[in-house]
């Protein structure tokens, strides 16, 4: 979801910048417009909810033996992920109803142009729902619920990991060190989430009236949106620092790409030897764009 979120955000703005503000990817057709509207919110919500549940999972793993024995299983995790994806799809599905095409006559060129209006609907009830009720839904899903859960779980995790325990068994000591490292990584990810998303919400919910109508309005809104989407790319950075398997896979990928570019032979991985003594873990007419409303994420 982080990857999709970054692509739909960056690709659209890069295309807009390279065309000198004349074109946007998700406004070139009604289909792309509807996809851009939906994924703009759906990817943000799923990423926020996954981070929230991961933090909740880590807090329960550190403090509840029953949870570790009964709930912390791959099958249960897949079911929870499917429920989250399906619930958010239903919640955001109405966004496919926004966006419509209309035609205008260009007097300078003498050509009838078909324009695409994104984030608007001819249905006044649907349009009002998007601008009023959905704003509060987005606020709850993207900020209030994640912030509340993250803060509570962070306090529980910090209280647990700062207690220095003495282990006589080397395996238990190694496991405790690994749990502490993963917990610290999640804490950094959660703090990053709060720091990078809070300015965006303050600008669009608290200070919007004070910011609108100035020369710097677009710059401020773009900066807060960019900061918010930066969080998605930082998650990969935290994984690289904290997870050994992720670092190994990234290094191998870079090695393969480098050797392909230089024409050198690619070493074959010996899976049999690698896993010896180690437990296996699972883990039509001319179309132009009318897209006057930014995503207020």
TrEMBL record:
Its main location: membrane. Keywords: G-protein coupled receptor, Membrane, Receptor, Transducer, Transmembrane, Transmembrane helix. The chain crosses the membrane at residues 38-56, 76-100, 136-158, 184-207, 227-246. Residues 1-239 form the G-protein coupled receptors family 1 profile domain. InterPro entries: GPCR_Rhodpsn, GPCR_Rhodpsn_7TM. Gene3D superfamilies: Rhodopsin 7-helix transmembrane proteins. GO terms for cellular component: plasma membrane. Pfam families: 7tm_1 (PF00001). This is G-protein coupled receptors family 1 profile domain-containing protein.
């Amino acid at each position: 979801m982080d990857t999709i979120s970054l692509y739909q955000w960056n690709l659209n703005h890069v295309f807009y910048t390279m065309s000198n503000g004349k074109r946007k990817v998700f406004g070139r057709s009604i289909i792309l417009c509807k996809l851009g509207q939906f994924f703009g919110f759906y990817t943000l919500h799923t990423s926020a909810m996954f981070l929230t549940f991961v933090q909740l999972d880590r807090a329960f793993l550190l403090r509840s033996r029953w949870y570790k024995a009964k709930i912390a299983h791959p099958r249960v995790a897949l079911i929870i992920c499917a429920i989250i994806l399906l619930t958010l799809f239903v919640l955001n599905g109405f966004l496919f109803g926004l966006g419509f095409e209309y035609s205008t006559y260009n007097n300078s060129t003498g050509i009838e142009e078909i324009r695409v209006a994104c984030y608007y609907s001819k249905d006044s009830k649907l349009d009002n729902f998007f601008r009023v009720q959905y704003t509060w839904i987005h606020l709850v899903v993207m900020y209030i619920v994640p912030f509340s859960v993250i803060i509570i779980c962070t306090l529980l995790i910090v209280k647990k990991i700062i207690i220095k325990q003495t282990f006589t068994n080397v395996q238990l000591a190694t496991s405790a060190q690994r749990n502490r490292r993963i917990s610290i990584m999640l804490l950094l990810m959660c703090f990053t989430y709060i720091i990078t998303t809070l300015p965006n919400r303050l600008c669009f919910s608290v200070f919007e009236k004070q910011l609108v109508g100035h020369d710097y309005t677009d710059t401020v809104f773009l900066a807060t949106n960019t900061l918010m989407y930066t969080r998605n790319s930082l998650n990969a950075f935290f994984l690289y620092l904290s997870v050994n398997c992720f670092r190994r896979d990234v290094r191998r990928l870079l090695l393969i790409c480098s050797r392909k570019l230089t024409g050198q032979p690619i070493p074959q991985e010996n899976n049999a030897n690698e896993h010896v003594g180690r437990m296996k873990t699972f883990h039509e007419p001319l179309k132009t764009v009318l897209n006057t409303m930014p995503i207020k994420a």
